[in-house]
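Can anyone check this?
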Amino acid sequence: MVADNAHSIAEAHFSDSAWFRAIYDGDTPVGFIMTHTGSDYEDGIDCPGVFLWRFMIAAPYQGKGYGKRALEKLIQHLKAMGVPVLYTSCGQGEGSPEGFYRQMGFTPPATITARRSS
């Protein structure tokens, strides 16, 4: 349900609003996280704040707490910067991360975009 990491990295290099990092366990890459700040027509994002644009934990590492720890660190980082809300969206159906996002405190409003309050 997420774009290939190479595609995401290429998009990030052409966006002034993107921030991205690899997620590691020691020297082992286990995932990827990317945010976007503000709305940008060219990036296809209409968000009033920081948007969790891409978030991926590789299949062998899912269910081991990496995603939770990475998202907690991101939220902690954003709070330190004075950002009170993190927005995201997710696909529906089999393999949807919606349950994970709900466990992390995101709440769905009337639209597909979800948010996490501080």
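Reply from J.R.: I decoded it. The longest strand covers residues 28-37.
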